[in-house]
Amino acid sequence: MDLISNLSLGLSIALQPHNLAFCFVGCLLGTLVGVLPGIGPTATIAMLLPITLGLDPSTSLIMLAGIYYGAQYGGSTTAILINLPGESSSAVTAIDGYQMAKRGRAGIALAAAALGSFFAGTVATVVLALFAPPLAKAALKFGSPEYFSLMVLGLVCAIALAHGSILKATAMIIVGLLFGLVGADLYSGAQRFTFGIPELSDELNFVSVAVGVFGIAEILRNLQNETDRDVMVKKVTGLWPTREDFRRMAGPVVRGTALGSILGVLPGGGAILAAFASYTVEKRISRRPQEFGKGAIEGVAGPESANNAGAQTSFIPMLTLGIPANPVMALMIGAMIIQGIVPGPNVVNQNPELFWGIIASMWAGNLMLVLLNLPLIGLWVRLLTIPYYLLFPAIMAFAAIGIYSINSNPYDLYTLTLFGALGYALVRFGCEPAPLLLGFVLGPMLEEHLRRAMIISRGDPTVFLTRPISAVLLVIAAIVLAVVLMPSVRRKREEVFVEED
Amino acid sequence: MTFNRSDVGAGAIFVGIGLFFGLMTLYGLDIGTARRMGPGYFPIVLSGLLVVFGITTILKGIGHEDVERGPLPWRGIAILLGVPVIFGLLIRPLGIAPVLLVTTFITSFASRRMSLIVALLLSLGLTVFCILVFVMGLGLPLRIFGPLVEPWTRPIFGVR
Amino acid sequence: MKKLLATLSIAALALLPQVAGAQTYPERTITMVVPFSAGGPTDTVARLVAEAMSRELGQQIIVENVGGAGGTVGAARVAQAAPDGYTLLLHHIGMATSATLYRKLPYNPLESFEYAGLVTEVPMTIIARPDFPADDLQGLIAYLKEHKDDVTYANAGIGAASHLCGMLFMSEIETQLTTVPYQGTGPAMTDLLGGQVDVMCDQTTNTTSQIQAGAVKAYAVTSPERLEQLPDLPTAAEGGLASMQFGIWHGLYAPKGTDPAIMERLSQALKVALKDKNVVERFAALATKPEPEENATPQALKAKLESEIARWKPLIEAAGVYAD
Question: Best mutation site among B144, B149, B159 for testing chain C: the one with the most C CBs within 10 Å?
Answer without folding.
Answer: B159
